[in-house]
């Protein structure tokens, strides 16, 4: 057994990733929710804002494409890491190399982080698309309210955070002394 883990015993379950990520998700949601005033809404497209400095700023489509491309990249890399870890563990041969023991030790929680990342980023892409479509078809363009803004922000940021934490957790477990 490897004793170099960040928290001995904490790596042993996929579900332990939730203990790390859910408080972060809650904090991000609350931050985003309270960053907008009560009864306030958010303009996706600056052209719908009557304020002179931003009314000619353009459409949200270009920004949306960048956000969704970044989410797709993180989803692809997360799925690749999960596949790599499963393949590594499924094909291990005796005697087990020390690095494989470290991978085996930290894999459950790392898979949890990357799974959480994939779920949140897919949710982010779906939520953003649904909310934007609803916004585009509303007559006053006031449908993107606080909870929708907070949901979108929370899903996107916690998805990226879980992605980064997953790599960090794996690296810390693989290269600790």
Quick recap of the structure?
The chain has one domain. The chain is 67% helix and 0% strand. It is built from four helices and no strands.
> Span between N and C termini?
14 Å
- Rounded Rg: 20 Å
The poorly predicted ranges are: 1-5
Helix content: 55-70%
Q: Give the class from helix and strand content and strand pairing.
A: mainly alpha
Strand content: under 5%
What's the total helix number? 4
How confident overall, as mean pLDDT?
Answer: 83
Helix and strand sequence: HHHH
| Overall 3D form | elongated
> Can you tell me the number of structural domains?
1
Can you lay out the helices and strands and say which pair or pack?
Layout: H1 16-34, H2 61-90, H3 98-137, H4 146-174
Overview of this structure, please?
With 177 residues, this protein is mainly alpha-helical. The protein has one domain (41-49, 58-174). The protein has helices at residues 16-34, 61-90, 98-137, 146-174. Helix 3 (98-137) runs antiparallel to helix 4 (146-174). The longest helix is centred in the middle third of the chain and has 40 residues, at 98-137. The model is unreliable at 1-5 (pLDDT under 50).
């Amino acid at each position: 057994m490897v004793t170099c883990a960040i928290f001995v015993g904490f790596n042993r379950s996929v579900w332990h990733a939730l203990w790390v990520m859910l408080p972060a998700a809650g904090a991000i949601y609350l931050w985003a929710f309270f960053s907008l005033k009560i009864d306030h809404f958010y303009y996706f497209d600056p052209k719908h804002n009557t304020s002179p400095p931003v009314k000619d700023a353009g459409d949200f489509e270009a920004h949306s494409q960048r956000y969704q491309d970044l989410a797709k990249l993180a989803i692809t890399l997360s799925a690749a890491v999960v596949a790599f870890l499963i393949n590594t563990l499924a094909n291990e041969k005796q005697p087990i190399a020390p690095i494989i023991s470290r991978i085996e030790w930290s894999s459950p929680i790392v898979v949890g982080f990357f799974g959480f990342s994939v779920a949140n980023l897919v949710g982010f892409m779906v939520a953003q698309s649904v909310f934007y479509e609803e916004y585009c078809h509303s007559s006053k363009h006031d449908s993107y309210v606080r909870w929708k803004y907070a949901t979108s922000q929370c899903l996107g940021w916690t998805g990226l955070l879980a992605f980064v934490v997953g790599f960090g957790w794996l690296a810390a477990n693989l290269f600790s002394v």
